[in-house]
Amino acid sequence: MREQIFTFGQYLHRKFGAKVSKVPVSISGFTCPNIDGTVAKGGCTFCENDSFSPSLDRARELKGFFLNLQSTQNPHLDKQIQQLEWQFDALSKRLREENSAQKFMVYFQSFTNTYAPFETLKALYDKALSFDNVIGLSIGTRSDSISDETFEYLYELSQKTEIWVEFGIQSIYDKTLERINRGHNSANVKETIIKAKSYGLNVCGHLIFGLPGESKEMMLETAKAAYGLGIDSVKYHPLYVVKRTALANEYARGEFEPISEELYVDVLKEALLLKPSNVSVQRVSAGIDDETLIAPSWCRDKNTQLRVINDALCSVGLKY
Ligand code: SF4
Questions:
Q1: What pLDDT digit, counting tens, does each position of 120-140 carry?
Q2: Per-domain residue ranges for the chain?
Q3: 311 Cβ contact list (under 8 Å, min separation 6)
Q4: What is the pTM (predicted TM-score) of this model?
């Protein structure tokens, strides 16, 4: 009998007695200190962003408008709130019809969603929590971009609703973080996750397997360190190369070799075996089925990946 890996969907279903879906939203005006020059320029080498590809900014609804922690005013807050409403309405309707979703968690996904003045964050979070059937928020951010004021407000919200913060851990090795131009070191990630836990917040950690220069042992050390920090949920990703990124140039110059499917699945299997049973899993694969993917091609088909992953997990008595 194979043991089912504890998924985030199961966690939410147990807690709320209904099918809960995350509704990803992307709000204009949010950027990242690793893109706007505050800690670095260009962003992580794998990130497709405006500074690397200025045409992306020209395509934005509020082109050239970016907030940061020091912004003293936000002339476009109404517009941002409208965007949030439109996106939530459209996506929640689709999730209700296609996935039988009954309740929703608003997921602030793109860029760094605590990197804006507190009043803006508060207005957006409050608005998201006011939508029908919303049970809480999940906020994607960086460990160097969340103020104490925001932590305190999230703590306050967490007393009455479900609050998650998602941090990109990626690797615990500083030389890897430097190589991918992450703009913060691993001590900063540890410190911030410990702080988030001290505020009683739920934390999801993102890990990337296949970062440049990393061995299988290093990837597993990162997974162990992340579990050791007390994360409550995890997303595992393979590193893939997309167009219009610094990594695409490295790949073209022969300086980066993507992880093979065999190695990724092997590392993932061991990382899952090491995972404490209370840590839920939100993602184990990539699914980038569009023309932006350069390599590796096995990242294109999510269904095949899941089949291969499940075959490997079968050998150790697990299923996803
Ligand atoms: S932290 Fe996220 S948004 Fe910022 S550059 Fe890296 S991947 Fe892109």
A1: 999 999 999 999 999 999 999
A2: 3-319
A3: none
A4: 0.96
